[in-house]
Specification:
- The structure is a single chain.
- By secondary structure, this protein is α/β, with parallel strands linked by helices.
- The protein is built from ten helices and eight strands.
- Helix 4 runs parallel beside helix 5.
- The chain is globular and about 55 Å long.
Length: about 280
């Protein structure tokens, strides 16, 4: 199983190759390119042609560094802004542009969140919630097919939502019923709904489990801690991945923060994190 880690240039790609070479030197095979997540950045400031020029540089930088861009993260807004038709139309447009951008960097997977028309912590009309999401993602899946990109629907840490738990996300993917719509399992989000990530892996299974967001927390807040620093049973999670024959990327959605560390100590801790990822991926 390959290992990867999040990477998010938002203001410049001038140092992309150097940054990716550092990631490769740590032992990672892949990166989760998260620059489409928030759309107030260089990739959305200009035209699609402008974005294409930037992404061509990113793709070349990754190739030169020997790193695979294994997944991207589609746009989402905090707090959610999906209440109106206009909001959702704007989001759809940005989603389509991100699918196109994902294809431009030679990546086959884009992670996205559910549409949240009533916000993140309430759901007064579950039927309407599902109606909106089915309409939105059925249309978006057709676009994903055009670009040859698989949408990976992520489980969420918000119990009020109709689409939050791994089981709900899996059932929704089956409703969409397309090879271009699969599941992203977020380990930290699982624990906030009191779901064991290992059990979620077994429940989703190899056919639908496409990508991972790997991080830890205290079971209460979405803290994006390093693995083995919170409450997750990592031995069980690793075993479950091997039981189902998962052959994707063990992709970290966390990293060691500088926090005033000396360069040598920061490097040591990042090397340790990479070793942890490879150990857990290796079972």
């Amino acid at each position: 199983m390959k290992t990867g880690i999040e990477w998010c240039p938002e203001k410049s790609v001038d140092n992309a190759e150097a940054e990716l070479k550092e990631i490769r030197a740590l032992g990672y095979d892949c990166v989760d390119f998260q620059s489409f997540c928030h759309t107030e950045n260089i990739f959305f400031d200009g035209t699609v042609r402008d974005m294409e020029k930037l992404l061509k540089r990113v793709k070349i930088a990754a190739e030169n560094a020997g790193i695979e861009i294994s997944q991207t993260h589609g746009p989402w807004r905090w707090p959610p802004q999906d209440a109106t038709e206009e909001d959702r139309s704007e989001r759809f447009e940005k989603m389509v542009r991100s699918l196109e951008g994902t294809a431009m960097v030679g990546c086959a997977d884009m992670v996205i969140h559910p549409v949240m028309p009533f916000g993140d912590n309430q759901n007064p009309d579950p039927e309407r919630f599902m109606e909106i999401n089915l309409e939105f993602f059925n249309r978006l899946t057709l676009k994903a097919r055009e670009y040859g990109v698989t949408i990976d629907f992520e489980n969420m840490p918000m119990p009020a939502l109709t689409l939050a738990s791994p089981r709900q996300i899996l059932d929704f993917a089956k409703q969409i019923d397309s090879p271009y719509f699969r599941v992203c399992l977020d380990t930290g989000h699982c624990t906030m709904l009191k779901v064991d990530p290992g059990q979620a892996v077994r429940e989703i299974g190899k056919q639908y489990l496409r990508v991972l967001h790997v991080h830890d927390n205290n079971g209460v807040s979405d803290l994006h801690w390093l693995p083995e620093t919170g409450v997750i049973d990592w031995k069980n999670f690793s075993a479950a991945l091997h039981e189902i024959g998962f052959d994707g990327v063990f992709s970290l959605e966390t990293n060691v923060k500088p926090n005033g560390l000396e360069p040598e100590e920061l490097l040591r801790k990042r090397q340790e994190l990479s070793r942890t990822a490879r150990r857990l991926a290796g079972g």
